[in-house]
Amino acid sequence: MKKALITGVTGQDGAYLAQLLLDKGYEVHGLVRRSASAEVVDARLKWLGISDDITLHDGNLIDLPCLMRVVREVQPDEIYNLAAQSFVKSSWQQPILTGTVTGLGAANVLEAVRLTAPAARIYQASSSEMFGLIQHPIQSEQTPFYPRSPYGVAKLYAHWMTVNYRESFGIHASNGILFNHESPLRGIEFVTRKITDGVARIKLGLESELALGNLDAKRDWGHASDYVRAMWLMLQQDKPGDYVIATGRTASVREFCQLAFSYVGLDMADHIVADPRYMRPAEVDILLGDATKAHEKLGWQPVATLEDIVAEMVDADIERLIDTARPRHRLPPGFRRPGQRSEHRLVEMAGSPSLRYE
Ligand code: NAP
Ligand code: G4F
């Protein structure tokens, strides 16, 4: 049985990847950082119904001895480094933390593997945010990088460290340059989930407005479940490499709003308000990926369309909010009734109105 270690297992991609690897028969281990809200830390894993199937290890990406201990104990065949401070807007407020976790943290993972399990294969979660101020209208593995945020700069350091460890030490380390990918498990602070949660609230009469920043920004949006399949495929190759993963279609935040509001029969013009708090000091205006290499070498293709993604996310948010509003006997945090995972998981994943990121 193959063993995989996922850092960032409690995040969107970590949860979908863990599910994929369990389905493939892997023994799945995850690194989890200590939280005072331990009862909600594995909410996404519970939502997918897999929290009991994963071995969780207490640890943090910035603690190299701890990473070495976990890697030595698990001796994984594959390591997926998904952990990061991943919210671009926060990276201007927390540039040093972002550099430490998202940049140096990746170097810690590479170093832990080099010192304790050099035969393990590594996936590094690189990002289309590294293209930033785009140097070519369609971005591929050959397109020069020009990051526009502390997050993008940190990811670029991690990207080149991964290339460097591959070339210096012969480690099987691959970078997945993933364009934006979304799902019902997306964090509430990212624009797509903020929109689908907002649309659901407006549809249910809980709110009337949705405040957003730059509606003209364009992104190449795919589905997280398609993109974690690409991660796995990269580590099944005889030789490591770097791959762009994208759909080849770009759409603006405005178009995403139109799709989401019209899906529930509403007109976005009646509800969207512009709020400068959500503008960024430097913007990535447009991203559009060319995943030809992944199509040809990995045999990877995305399945979900943007319309599919919008529909799934809006439906899930409506379901969560209805479930949250329904009065019932609440169980203590961390507990669930046997065989009744749906009730608890929906409460845990519902966006909190008080939790609003600028
Ligand atoms: P996410 O939902 O924000 O998950 C990030 C994960 O990292 C969470 O499990 C988080 O733990 C963990 N983490 C944060 N700081 C940590 C630390 N110091 N030590 C250990 N774990 C830590 O992100 P995602 O959307 O799944 O993305 C996965 C990876 O792909 C990230 O590296 C992201 O930057 C990259 N990426 C994402 C996209 C996208 O569109 N989603 C595109 C390109 C690249 P907590 O649960 O405790 O917060
Ligand atoms: O959803 P976003 O916050 O994602 P962003 O910045 O593109 O980053 C995501 O994708 C990267 C891959 O390219 C990942 F590496 C990264 O970890 C993350 O997953 O913002 C998307 C766009 C931006 O242009 C932003 O300015 O939406 C625009 N936007 C407009 N109004 C907003 C809002 N973004 C947020 N979060 N909130 C708004 O109210």
Write up what this structure looks like.
With 358 residues, this protein is of the alpha/beta class. It is 42% helix and 14% strand. The chain is globular, with a radius of gyration of 20 Å. The model is unreliable at 331-355 (pLDDT under 50). Ligand G4F binds at residues 86, 88-89, 127-129, 179-180, 189-192, 194, 212-214, 217, 219, 253, 278, 280, 283-284, 287.
Attribute tags:
single chain, binds ligand G4F, seven-stranded parallel β-sheet, 358 residues, globular, alpha/beta, binds NADP nicotinamide-adenine-dinucleotide phosphate, 13 helices
Summarize the model shown:
Helices cover 42% and strands 14% of the residues. It is α/β, with parallel strands linked by helices and 358 residues long. Residues 7-8, 10-14, 31, 33, 35, 41, 60-62, 82-86, 101, 125, 127, 178, 180-181, 187 line the site of NADP nicotinamide-adenine-dinucleotide phosphate.
